[in-house]
Design a protein that fits this description.
heterodimer, A: about 120 residues, mainly beta, six-stranded mixed sheet, four-stranded antiparallel sheet, about 50% strand, globular, B: mainly beta, seven-stranded mixed sheet
Chain lengths: ~120, ~110
């Protein structure tokens, strides 16, 4: 079984400050990890993913995430937040087995609010 | 935009109506998905199609009926829905069934 947890319902940060959105996961095999962002009345947009290789993954819009196997975490980070980063962020995980039919397990989402 | 379109964007229907949601992907992908997003709940995977064959039916009630006539189009036929079915229905596609999924903008459904 696989699961993912986003412990914070909401993160508040001032514009220009660092932004971190937390995610921890549980999977029986090798984890494939993803971050998506959802703006109001829109679908989910892919930000970045970790499959294998370098633990620090860089993605769209200046976001990056660090895979930490020992802590089973995949936190999303941005060095300097913008007001336009205010949105709902989803972490997702799937077992790396090819027969899982792309079945992503999504977290419950973290609302990010960036204030001017 | 992601290359995945959904119509209509908004839909209001009564419990006795029959309607269909349409999804089209312009990315040349081989797998397509339907998800349900309700307030305060994680995304729920409903159906998965790979090469036009349904490979996942995640215990979805029979009042939801998917159809995938080709690799670019996916439909969700709705009939005799319940108010608790009101939600945002998202379509997604991926190159293969285990690769990155790209989402459409969703259809906001309200069942009265």
């Amino acid at each position: 079984a696989q699961s993912v947890a986003q412990p914070e319902d909401q993160v508040n940060v001032a514009e220009g400050n660092p932004l971190t959105v937390k995610c921890t996961y549980s999977v029986s095999g090798n984890p494939y990890l993803f971050w998506y962002v959802q703006y109001p009345n829109r679908g989910l947009q892919f930000l970045l993913k970790y499959i294998t290789g370098d633990n620090l993954v860089k993605g769209s819009y200046g976001f990056e995430a660090e895979f930490n196997k020992s802590q089973t975490s995949f936190h999303l980070k941005k060095p300097s937040a913008l007001v336009s980063d205010s949105a709902l962020y989803f972490c997702a995980v799937r077992d790396g087995s090819a027969d899982s039919w792309g079945k992503l397990q999504f977290g419950s989402g973290t609302q990010v609010v960036v204030t001017p | 935009e992601t290359g995945v379109t959904q119509t209509p964007r908004h839909l209001v229907m009564g419990m006795t109506n029959k309607k269909s949601l349409k999804c089209e992907q312009h990315l040349g992908h081989n797998a397509m998905y339907w998800y349900k997003q309700s307030a305060k709940k994680p995304l729920e995977l409903m159906f998965v199609y790979s090469l036009e064959e349904r490979v996942e039916n995640n215990s979805v009630p029979s009042r939801f009926s998917p159809e995938c006539p080709n690799s670019s189009h996916l439909f969700l036929h709705l009939h005799t829905l319940q108010p608790e079915d009101s939600a945002l229905y998202l379509c997604a596609s991926s190159q293969e069934a285990y690769e990155t999924q790209y989402f459409g903008p969703g259809t906001r459904l309200l069942v009265l």
